[in-house]
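From the thread on structure requests for the teaching lab: each student submitted one protein with a one-line request. Submission from student K.M.:

"Model Transmembrane protein from Nymphaea colorata, tokens only."
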Amino acid sequence: MDSRSRVVVGLLVLAFLFTVGSAHSFSPFDGIQRSAFQLVS
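Reply posted by the TA:
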């Protein structure tokens, strides 16, 4: 996967997690977001 694809996928994942986290007010949302950042980077 090239760097551009990684960035696009990462942004989509973060946007999805942000939407879900906001809708349900998850407490561990920050942990999920950090995990996503680790997966992308």
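TA comment: The chain has one domain: 3-40. The mean pLDDT is 78.
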